[in-house]
Amino acid sequence: MKVPRIENVTPTSNMTLEIQWKGAPASAAHLFGWIATGGELLTPLKSPEVWKTATVTDYGATVEWAGEDLAIDAYHLFQIAGDQRDFALDDVRKWQEQAGLSNNEAADFLGVN
C-alpha cells in the first residue's frame, strides 16, 4: 500500500489532526488513543500549547510537535485516519460479501432490521 505524503496538518481541539494529503482526500485523525498508549513520552501532547505546535516535517513523512521525540509518521497517521473514517454503504457491502453473510445474517450481526 502506498501511503501519501502529508501536505498540511491543522491541529484542532480534542487531540484531532485535520490532514491534507498529497494525492489523497483530506481526513481527520483523533489521536487520543494513540497518545494514551504512549506513556510518559507522549503526555506533553495533552497540553493545548504543545498540541497546537503540530507541523509537517521530513518532506511530508512526519508530523512533529515542539518538544523532544514528539512525532508520528505518515504511515501510522494514514492508518489511524482510515480506521476512524465513516463506514460507507460500499464498505458494508464489501464486508458482507467477504464474510459470506445474507442480508438477514448481516442485519442480525449489526443489530438492525
Short synopsis of the structure:
With 113 residues, the protein is α+β, with helices and mostly antiparallel strands. 38% of the residues lie in helices and 23% in strands.
Provide the descriptors you would attach to this structure in a database record.
alpha+beta, NE0471 N-terminal domain-like, 6 helices, elongated, NE0471-like_N, DUF2442 domain-containing protein
Helix-strand layout with pairing:
Elements: E1 6-12, E2 16-21, E3 27-30, H1 32-36, H2 39-42, H3 48-51, E4 55-57, E5 62-64, E6 71-73, H4 74-84, H5 89-99, H6 103-110
Protein name: DUF2442 domain-containing protein
InterPro entries: NE0471-like_N
Organism: Rhizobium miluonense
